[in-house]
Each structure stands twice: as structure tokens, then as C-alpha cells.
């Protein structure tokens, strides 16, 4: 569904414009509703899910047994922080200030289409992540099977 990398500007009010290439998808496939939440695995990144896709993720995360601290942490970061946003007439969404601050997202950011969701990275975190290479010791069996 979503793929590609787009440099994004966040305005002084914390809004970002959905790139033109994704606007029809967001209106049609997402019923013009996205859910913004933390990426529990990477610093400097927020996740933006289409509402229907989000409901599946939310239900899986909430089904995790709450007796494990890692499960509770994931539930807090994903479900507890989830905010529904709808693009305005100019195709802009308002990112929650607390999430922008925690992820270090300021004026410049990078929006990545990752199939079933978007990732919104602070410019600095994205640059640092992109500059990291995947070493031989990092390659999993699943990655080794890819024919790239």
C-alpha cells in the first residue's frame, strides 16, 4: 500500500501535509483516518497506521498477557499513546505535541511508506539509521534467503 521516502516539513502548529502521492490512499483506503503512536522499537520515530490496520494491531497488542513488563510497555507505547487524526481540507494532520517532543520531531522530518503503515522519523534519527549498515553478523536466516 505505502512505499517511498519523503522529506516533510512540520509547521509551527505541529501539522504535516500528507504527500500528494498518498492523499487518495489516505482518503479511500484509510477512510481519511490515521492513528499516530510511538514506534516501540526505534528512537526518533512515530508510526502512522490507517485506522482499519490500527484496529488489528491494537487488538493483538491488547491481547498480550499483562503480567510481563515488556507487554505492558508495548501496550503503553502503542495503545496508550494512540491518537486518531484526520487530515484537514489542506491534507494536513496535527501531530500530538507530546509525541513530537518524545520522538524529537521538529521542523524537518522524513515520512517512509512501509507497506501497511507510515513511519515518521526525525531528520536526525533517520539520517543516523540510514547511515548504519547491516553487517554480516546481523544477517538473519530469513534475510540470507532473500534474492536481492
TrEMBL record:
<dbReference type="InterPro" id="IPR035642">
    <property type="entry name" value="MraZ_N"/>
</dbReference>
<keyword id="KW-0805">Transcription regulation</keyword>
<dbReference type="InterPro" id="IPR007159">
    <property type="entry name" value="SpoVT-AbrB_dom"/>
</dbReference>
<dbReference type="InterPro" id="IPR038619">
    <property type="entry name" value="MraZ_sf"/>
</dbReference>
<protein>
    <recommendedName>
        <fullName>Transcriptional regulator MraZ</fullName>
    </recommendedName>
</protein>
<keyword id="KW-0804">Transcription</keyword>
<dbReference type="Pfam" id="PF02381">
    <property type="entry name" value="MraZ"/>
</dbReference>
<dbReference type="InterPro" id="IPR035644">
    <property type="entry name" value="MraZ_C"/>
</dbReference>
<feature type="domain" description="SpoVT-AbrB">
    <location>
        <begin position="82"/>
        <end position="125"/>
    </location>
</feature>
<dbReference type="InterPro" id="IPR037914">
    <property type="entry name" value="SpoVT-AbrB_sf"/>
</dbReference>
<feature type="domain" description="SpoVT-AbrB">
    <location>
        <begin position="5"/>
        <end position="53"/>
    </location>
</feature>
<dbReference type="InterPro" id="IPR020603">
    <property type="entry name" value="MraZ_dom"/>
</dbReference>
<comment type="subunit">
    <text>Forms oligomers.</text>
</comment>
<keyword id="KW-0238">DNA-binding</keyword>
<comment type="similarity">
    <text>Belongs to the MraZ family.</text>
</comment>
<keyword id="KW-0677">Repeat</keyword>
<dbReference type="InterPro" id="IPR003444">
    <property type="entry name" value="MraZ"/>
</dbReference>
<keyword id="KW-0963">Cytoplasm</keyword>
